[in-house]
Amino acid sequence: MFEYEAHELPASWPVIGREPELARIADARAAGASAVLIQAPAGVGKTRLAREALARAQRDGARTAWAQATRSAATVPLGPFAGVIPVDVRYDDQFELLRGSTHAMRELAGDCPLVLGVDDVQLLDSTSAALVFHLAATAAVFVVATMRSDEPCEDAIVSLWKDLEAPRLELSCLGEAHTERLLEVMLGGPVEQAVLSWISETSGGNPLYVRELVLGACASGALVRRHRLWRMVAPLPISSSLTEIVSARLAGAGDRERETLELLALGEPLGLSELVELVGDGPLAKVEARGLIAIEGSGRQAEVRLAHPLYGEVVRASLGTVRGNLIRLRLAELVQSRGRISPNLALRVARWLLDAGEPVPTSRLLDAARAANLGGDPELAAQLAKQAADAGFGIDAALELARSHSILNQPERADEVLTAAEGSVKAQDDAVAYLVQRISVLHSGLTDADELRELVSRWQRSWPDDERWRARLAPWRLWVPGRKSFDERNDLVSEASGLLRDHELDAAGRRRLESIRLAALYYNGRGLEADALARRIRTGPPPLRDSTDEAILSAYVVATPETGEGLDELERWAVLTLKKAVATGDRGAAGLASLALGQRHLIEGRFVDADRWLAEAQLHQEQRDPIGLIAITCALQAWTAASTRDEKAADAALARCRLVSAGADPHGIRSRALQAATAWVALAHGLRKAARRILIDAAAENWELPLYATRFLYEAMRAGEPARNVAPALTNISNRSDARMLSAKAAHARHLAARDAPALLEIAGRFEGIGALLYASEAAAHAAQIFLAAGRKDSARRAAARSRELFVDGQARPVPVIDGLESDAIALTPRESELVELARVGLSNGEIANRLVLSKRTVESHMYRAMQKLGISDRRELLV
Questions:
Q1: What Å distances lie between residue 67 and 149, 155, 326, 666, CA to CA?
Q2: Mind spelling out the 3-state secondary structure of 375-427?
C-alpha cells in the first residue's frame, strides 16, 4: 500500500499568464485613460484580472471600490453600488442622483486617485450604467469594467469605448504552459504530465474549468500526492458543478442537433461529408451557428470536432447504455463502409464494437492490435492479438501478443508466447522479426545471456549456406553481451562499422548495428562521435517502435549527461518527447524523457526540479521500463535527497533501488546504480568516509567503463577525498576519451590538487559552457578558498562572487561556504543584480540611469562594485 501525502488546496492563487493585460491596464491608467473594459466568455478570468488590477492600483497609492452587477440587482437603480454609495445620496431626480453619487465617490477617494471596478457591466441597470459613464467622463475615477463577450449592454457602457475611447481587452483562454502553471500553483506542487496534459486539454485553458476539474479530481480521490508528485490513481472525473455549467451551454439542442453532438462525442473527428450523411446539413448548421462544433479544413478533407473537449465529456456522461451502443455501431458501420482502412481506424472500429458488446471482424484484429500497442493500450492489444492468434494469423499474431506482454512488463509471458511460436517461423523476414522480439525479451526483460547466446547460435544454423542470412544475422550476434573491456568495445565499434558497409544488410539490421556502435562509443567516453551518431539515428516523436528504438534512446538519455555533449538538445528532445509520449500512452518513452530531464536538472544543481522529474520517471518506469533504468532513477533520487539533506527520502530511495536491483544483472546497470545509491545515503547520514570508500571501490570495479569510473572518482572528490588521490586516475581516463565532461572533471581534480586558483576559475567557465552549473559553482568556490589561503582576499572575493553567481537559488541546498570570507562581501545587492541584468542585455550606463531614474554616477558606482565582486574588468563579459 502506498502512503499518500495530505495536502489542503489554497483558497486563492496568484494571477497566472495575465502580465501583458495587467501592464496594459496600468499603462492606460498612467496615460490618463478614463476606463478599460475587459471582455471574455464565462470562466476565462476577467473578474480575477480586474481585481488584481485594482489590488496593484491600491499598492500604487490609489483608493479602490468594487461594484458587482447581477441580474437581480438590475431591478433596483444603483443596486450594484449599494455597498459603495451611501443611502443618503439617493434622489428621485436622476441628475441630482448622478451628481450626489459622483460627490460621494470623490469623498471616498479623498486626496488619492480612485479606481472603480465594475464586474459584469452588461447586467447594469440604465441608471448604474449612466453613473459609470458619468464618473469616467468627468475624470472622477478610472473605471476597470468587465463584460461578457457577445452580450448586449446599455448605451452608456458602449459609449465608454465609442465616445471616451476606452481600450477594450479581449481576454482569451490561457495557453498550455500557463494552464499547467495555474494547475501546479493551485495544487501547491508538481503534477504528473498526464494530469497536466489532460486538464489543459479538457479545460481548454478556461481557469474556471481548471478549478472545477481540480476540485472534482481531489474530492473523488482520483488525484493524490505521492513522493511529492501529484498523480492520477483513477480516471479523473468531471464534477457535478462543472457538468451543470457545460450542460447549460448545450441546453436547447433539438433531437437531431443532440444526435450530432453524440456522434462527435463518441467518434470525433468525423468527416464533414460523413456527418452530413448521418444527420443532414440542417442540424449541422445549427450546432455550428451556436459555436458547439469546429470545422477544420475544406472540401473533402474537412473534419468536424466538438468546439470544446468538455462538451464531449458531458455528452458521453449523459448517454444511456443502449443509446451509446447504437451510436457506436453506426460509427463502426460508417468507417468500415470505406473498404480498406488504416490500422488506427481499425483500432477505433474495434473499440466501438467491443464497447457495444459486439465481436471485432477477424480481418481487423491484427491491424487493431498493432495500433493498440503503438497507441499505449497494450491490454487491448493483447486481447485483440490473442483473438488473431486463435483465428490463425500465426507468427504475426504471436509477435504482436509478445510485444503487448513486454510493454506490460511481463517478460515471462512474452517469452512463453515466443517459445511456443518459434517452430512456426519459416521465412527469413519472419525470422528477423521473431529475433527482434525474442532478443529484446532475453536481453532486457529476463536478462538471460546464456539463452540469448544459444538462440543466436541456433538461428545461425537455419540457412547455413545463405550469405544474405549471415549478413542479416550479424547485428544480432554482436548484440549478445560479452565484451567487457575498453579495447574490446573499441573493436566492437570497428566491427560494427565494417558490417554497416555490407550491402546485403537490411534496414532493421543496419539500425541495430548503429545502436550497438552508439552504446560502445558512449561506454568508452567517445562523446563527440556518440552525440553526432545519436542525433542522426534517434527516433522522432513517440511511440517507440521496437527494442532498437529503446536501446538507442536509453543510451542517449543515460550517457549524454555524463559526456556533457549536447545537453541543451537533450532537454529540448525530452520536453517534446514527454508530452507526445503521454499523449500516445507510451510509458517507455515517457520514462526515458523524464529521466533525461531529471539528470539535466541535477547537474545544474536544480535538486528540487530534478526531484520532480525523477518522480515522474519512476511513475512511468513502474509501468514500462524497457532495459531496467528505474534503478538509475532510484539512485539519482538518493543523490537528490542527500544533496538536500533529506535522510528519510534518501533511505526510501535506497530501499527502492535495492528492490528493483534484485536478480540477474548482466549489463551492470543495476549494480552500478546500487553502488551510487549506497554512497549517497551514507553521505545523507554524514558518513563521508564510508561514502568515499564505496565510490572509490566502485570506480576500481568499473575501470573499463570511462563514464562510470570518472563519475565515481569525481563524486568521491566532491565527498571530501583529496584531489591528489583521484587526479591521476581521472587524467588517465580523460586521455582515453574525448568527452567534454570527463575532461573538465579531470582538470578540476588536477588544478585543485595543484592549488591553481586561476585555472580553477577557467574550469568553472568550462563547466558553465557544458551546462554543469553545480560543478561550476563548486570549482569557483575552490578557487576562492585557495586565493584566501594565499592572502589574496580581493581575488578570493571575486571568485566567491563568481561561485555565488553560478549557484542556483531555491533548490533546497546550501550555498558553497568559503571559510574566512563574509558572505555579504561577495553577494550582489538587489540593486547591483538589477543593474547587472540590464547590462547583460546591452544597455549602457546612461540608458540604465534613464530607465531606473538614477544618476549616471550612481549607476557607475554600483556597476564597479558588482563587476569587482564578479571578478571581471570588461563589461562586455556580461553580455548574454
A1: 19, 19, 51, 72
A2: CCCHHHHHHHHHHHHHCCCHHHHHHHHHHHHHHCCCHHHHHHHHHHHHHHCCC
The C-alpha atoms of residue 733 and residue 726 are separated, in whole angstroms, by: 11
Residue type, position 826, single letter: I
Query: Number of C-alpha atoms within 13 angstroms, CB side, residue 430?
Result: 16
Q: What integer pLDDT is reported at residue 5 of this predicted model?
A: 57
3-state SS, residue 110 = coil
Label residue 328 by pLDDT band (50, 70, 90). Answer: very high
- Averaged pLDDT for residues 418-434: 89
3-state secondary structure of 254: coil
Model confidence at 1: pLDDT above 50 = no
Q: What is the mean pLDDT of residues 588-609?
A: 95
CA 452 – CA 477 distance, rounded (Å): 9
pLDDT of residue 655: 95
- Output the CA–CA distances (angstroms, integers) from residue 8 to 5, 11, 241, 783, in the order listed: 10, 9, 20, 46
CA distance 50 to 28: 14
Q: What is the distance between the alpha carbons of residues 608 and 228, in angstroms, rounded to a whole number?
A: 10
Buried b / exposed e over 634-667, threshold 16 CB at 10 Å, is bbbbbbbbbbbebeebbebbbebbeebbeeebeb
Q: State the CB neighbour count (10 A cutoff) for residue 523.
A: 22
pLDDT bin (cut points 50, 70, 90) of residue 22 is very high
Which band of pLDDT confidence, cut at 50, 70 and 90, is reported for residue 374? confident
| List of residues 6+ apart from 432 with CB closer than 8 A | 472, 506, 508, 509
The three grid cell numbers given for residue 98, joined into one nine-digit string: 448622478
Side-chain-side CA neighbours of residue 369 (13 Å):
28
Three cell numbers, residue 524: 568508452
Q: Could you give the CA distance from residue 280 to residue 264 in angstroms, rounded to a whole number?
A: 14
- Look at strands 168-170 and 223-226 and give their pairing: unpaired
Residue whose C-alpha cell reads 548574454 in the numeric block = 880
Concatenating the DSSP letter of every residue in 540-555 gives -SSPP-SHHHHHHHHH
End-to-end CA, the chain? 50
Is 288 within 8 Å of 295 (Cβ atoms)?
A: yes
Mean pLDDT (the chain, rounded): 88
Q: What does the block give as the cell for 363?
A: 480481418
Name the nearest CA neighbour of 129 among 74, 66, 47, 65.
74
DSSP states of 515-530: HHHHHHHHHTT-HHHH
Alpha-carbon gap, residue 24 to 167, rounded angstroms? 9
pLDDT of residue 25: 93
Confirm if 739 and 758 have CB atoms less than 8 A apart.
Answer: no
How many other CB atoms are found less than 10 A from the CB of residue 759? 18
Q: Measured between alpha carbons, how far is 308 from 293 in angstroms, rounded to an integer? A: 8
Indicate whether 751 pLDDT > 60. yes
**Mean pLDDT of the region 301-321:** 91
What residue ranges in 127-217 does DSSP mark as E strands? 142-148, 168-170
| Distance separating alpha carbons of residues 826 and 865, to the nearest angstrom | 10
Residues 511-563: tens digit of each pLDDT: 888 988 998 899 889 989 999 999 999 877 777 777 888 889 999 999 999 99
Biggest CA pair distance of the chain? 110
- Cα–Cα distance for residue pair 746/710, rounded to 1 Å: 8
- State how far Cα 157 lies from the chain centre: 43
C-alpha cell of residue 337: 463502409
3-state secondary structure 747-812: HHHHHHHCCCHHHHHHHHHHHHHHCCHHHHHHHHHHHHHHHHHCCCHHHHHHHHHHHHHHCCCCCC
- What's the pLDDT tens digit per position in 203-224? 999 998 998 899 889 888 999 9
